[in-house]
Amino acid sequence: MTKLYGSLEAGGTKFICAVGDAQFNVVDKVQFPTTTPDETLAQTAAFFQGYADRLQGIAVGSFGPIDIDKNSPTYGYITTTPKPHWANVDVIGVLKKAVDVPFYFTTDVNSSAFGETLVRQNVISLVYYTIGTGIGAGAIQHGEFVGGIAHTEAGHVLVSLHPQDQSKDFHGTCPFHKNCLEGLAAGPSLEARAGIRGECIAQDSEIWDIQAYYIAQAALQATLLYRPQVIVFGGGVMAQQHMLDRVRKQFAELLNDYVPVPDLEQYIVTPAVANNGSATLGNFALAKKVAEVSV
Q1: Orientation angle between helical segments 241-255 and 207-226, nearest 10 degrees
Q2: pTM of the model
Q3: Cα–Cα distance, 201 to 195 (Å, whole number)
Q4: Of 2, 37, 40, 122, which sits 20 to 30 A from 241 (CA to CA)?
């Protein structure tokens, strides 16, 4: 009987469930909107129950904040998220009652970062950012996730205000912090500045330069903190070539040749896994890893 591994990419907008074989080929995949915890987790459990006799393990990459401390009474929970109804939800507990296999629990960006290292030859140090409705980042050093008592929250680091935001006294849309990366560069900030959704903003709008200024600061912080081999920016906005060009340009100005970095076209890049599949690939590998440890 073919061994299968499960992947759950638990996003704030949608859940993506998949099962893959030992070579991490997708056998089946489904996605559905993130609604209430009861409804969404029931759909998730039903999908994986269909493969329960062959599943060896499941990895969950979730939006956060989450509790990844296995000694904590709330391990496996989404904790203080501002997403309505999802604070203090026991994701792993609910799923483990439905499918009794080993689980690996991490952030969605960690899953994506791990997946990217699997397809990039000789890359063992990498930072992966998702720029979307929110902003998160996963960092890997020598094949291991960077983190201590909990996962990092790189989306909420403070950044310097762009002069235009200073002049308009705009401090971002984050409900927790003023002047943080997520509040100033995630999707809602575009709409707050322009009054229209990001996909409706013209490519020649100066708003993109403002956003690139903040994303370039994120790349600068990642460079100075982690000295990675590659910085990957995922999310629909960064898939636009003009945004990559803007970020690379502003990054070079901010870095000002302080430390050596690879050629920017190989250093600041978009995902190598097609169709936003980095998290699914990473989860398959993490599910296999936790299954082998549990034997």
Answers
A1: 60
A2: 0.92
A3: 10
A4: 122
Give residue-wise pLDDT tens across range 154-191: 889 999 999 999 999 999 999 888 999 999 999 889 88
- Residue 202: exposed, middle, or buried by beta-carbon count in 10 A (0-12, 13-18, 19+)? exposed
Contact call for residues 135 and 128 (beta carbons, < 8 A): no
Give a yes or no: residue 192 inside a domain. yes
148 lies in the same domain as 43: no
- Same domain assignment for residues 131 and 266: yes
Structure tokens of 169?
A: 């006294």
How do beta strands 77-78 and 144-145 pair? unpaired
pLDDT, tens digit (0-9, with 9 covering 90-100), for 5-18? 999 999 988 999 99
Range of the domain at 256: 121-271
Instruction: Kindly list the distances between the CA atom of residue 233 and the CA atoms of 126, 129, 137, in Å, as whole numbers in the listed order.
Output: 11, 5, 9
Average pLDDT over residues 57-74: 94
Lowest pLDDT segment from 66-70, 148-152, 177-181, 289-293: 148-152
Spatial distance between the Cα atoms of 190 and 253, rounded to a whole number of angstroms: 23
Cβ(18)–Cβ(278) below 8 Å:
no
